[in-house]
Amino acid sequence: MSGDPVEAELSMRAIGSYTGPVYLRLGRAGDPVVHRDPPDFRIGRAITIQQGTDCTLISTGGILPVVVEASRRLREHSVRARVVSMHTVKPLDSATLEECCTGGGPVFTIEEHGPAGGLGSAIGEWLVERQISCRLISITTREQFAHRSGSQSFLRAEEGLSGQQIAERILATMERCFADR
Question: Is residue 122 a part of any domain in this protein?
Answer without folding.
Answer: yes
